[in-house]
């Protein structure tokens, strides 16, 4: 189900069942006064979500060909798998954190005996992504009106995207939502929980103010986002 979070920002709810149900977000920068007027999709869900990412885009009045770019918070199937639903109509750039791009492209092999490392080794063989232009993202990079923040822990190359004009932070799986509060993801779904906690504290100290917390799993917060992040940082 599509939900408008604010002017120019939509939640695309990609169903199945937790934890495979996930969120993607559509940002129309033409709604703001900045230099960019791009239509950006943040994360894509799984390819077998019902409704699909294409269904959710259509509910807002768009199709894959209308997208100018895709931003990925990290390489997990429930965030990147929907790329297979967007092609061939979408042929724009896909941005992903530098360390996760190396993982995705097979330049780095995660630890075979690590629970998530084994999963990633298998998933990139069994579920290859379509042939699209993949662009590395580093801490501080600007992409249109978005600023990237490297937030490792859940994945080595996990990235958060902040959009000042939208007053929104797209946090991926740095945090989850539970009963109106922010919490950390399940430990078994992350590479390094200690590093993830440090990333939460670091991000809360340096990210500009924002209202909307757009996370990968759970119900987005539409007010007081930076306060909620600082509260979580003080607890972990």
TrEMBL record:
Domain annotation Metallo-beta-lactamase: ranges: 21-217
Keyword Hydrolase set for record: yes
Hydrolase is among the record's keywords: yes
Swiss-Prot/TrEMBL keywords: Hydrolase
Molecular function GO labels: hydrolase activity
SUPFAM superfamilies hit by this protein: Metallo-hydrolase/oxidoreductase
Pfam families on file: Lactamase_B
InterPro entries xrefs: Metallo-B-lactamas (IPR001279), NDM-1-like (IPR050855), RibonucZ/Hydroxyglut_hydro (IPR036866)
Protein name: MBL fold hydrolase
